[in-house]
Specification:
- This is SRPBCC domain-containing protein.
- This protein is of the alpha+beta class.
- The protein has one domain (about 1-175): Alpha-D-Glucose-1,6-Bisphosphate, Chain A, domain 4 (2-Layer Sandwich).
- The chain contains 4 helices and 6 strands; from the N terminus they run βααβββββαα.
- It has helices at about 15-25, 25-30, 110-140, 155-175; strands at about 1-10, 45-50, 60-65, 70-80, 80-95, 95-110.
- α3 (about 110-140) runs antiparallel to α4 (about 155-175).
- The relative contact order is 0.21.
């Protein structure tokens, strides 16, 4: 059993601004998680969040590919998954104005535990692309200084925790 995620959003902002939201560690912390990210191929880094059943709250990553303002790819390991996340930026038009299309692919969910985890991550990625990144981009476009303490409220974490608790008996049973 295998599954991949692909999500797409168009933002009414220049590619350079969207790239900054994806590649600056402080900005990443505002919409994703606290991290020690550096935008260099080969850099190993971690994201940290609240632990959940079957997950210690640490995602181990490595930058495996990068073409500034076009593409960034990370390995993504945590809990029961060993996957890849790719961000692609493309030119777009929104309401007759230049914009940026962000395509997020999260691939490599192989086996029942990983596929179940993909549903949790898919919901999280969708919320971030739909709500959190636009808030960060709007504040950046206004020239506001952002950092981890300015993160939009993350009430979706409670949903993740309950979903993980629901799936944890299945994940443990299939991990053996």
């Amino acid at each position: 059993m295998k599954r991949s995620l692909e999500l797409e959003r168009i933002y009414p902002h220049p590619r350079a601004l969207v790239w900054s939201a994806l590649s600056d560690p402080e900005l990443l912390a505002t919409w994703l998680m606290p991290n020690d990210f550096v935008a260099e191929i080969g850099h190993e880094f971690t994201f940290r969040t609240d632990p959940a059943p079957g997950f210690d709250g640490i995602v181990h990553c490595k930058v495996v590919d990068m073409d500034p303002e076009r593409l960034m790819r990370w390995s993504w390991r945590g809990g029961s998954i060993d996957t890849t996340v790719t961000f692609r930026l493309e030119d777009a038009i929104l309401y007759s104005r230049p914009a940026t299309r962000l395509v997020l692919e999260h691939t490599g969910f192989d086996g029942l535990p990983a596929v179940l985890t993909s549903f949790i991550l898919g919901a999280g990625w969708a919320a971030m692309l739909r709500k959190k990144i636009p808030l960060v981009l709007e504040r950046m476009a206004r020239g506001e200084t952002l950092g981890p303490t300015h993160a939009p409220k993350a009430n979706w974490r409670a949903s993740w925790w309950w979903l993980a608790k629901l799936f944890s008996p299945i994940l443990r049973r299939n991990a053996k």
